[in-house]
Amino acid sequence: MVLREQHGFHRTRCGxxxxxxxxRYLPGSLAVDDLEQLCPPGQDVFVWAEEHLRALVDKPxxxxxxxxxxxxxxxxxxxxxxxxxxxxxxxxxxxDTHMSNDEIERRSAAxxxxxxxxxxxxxxxxxxxxxxxxxGRPGDRAGLAAEWQxxxxx
Length: 154
Known about the structure:
It is a single chain. A hairpin with a 6-residue loop joins strand 3 (53-56) and strand 4. A two-stranded antiparallel sheet has the order 1-2. The protein is mainly α. 43% of the residues lie in helices and 10% in strands. It contains eight helices and six strands.
């Protein structure tokens, strides 16, 4: 099996309860090249994005995230499984809870720098969603921390 690679990093493999918890509280952001992997061929990416993505406006660079349900979970999380697992966004597929803070920072920085430099489709989709008021809300970090605490106690 060939591991997916983006920004010089390999996709993580862990599916433990700790690594799955962010899907319910803090879905990961998309990297610049995630749009091509996630949007089905032949679909208008802007129309697709209206249903599947939200723009975050509280970040220093354009940031796209999956749409969230009213309970805060990622809308691609269906019956506890990721509906787009093979092509999951960089912020999901390339991070796990077993990484050091230094590794997390390295991976985050690579994605942020690519978004900062992008003047292409990612930026255009972000602007499109912003203009339509399709903006995301901050993730529930407190809820995620509480879930991790519950998992540690088990």
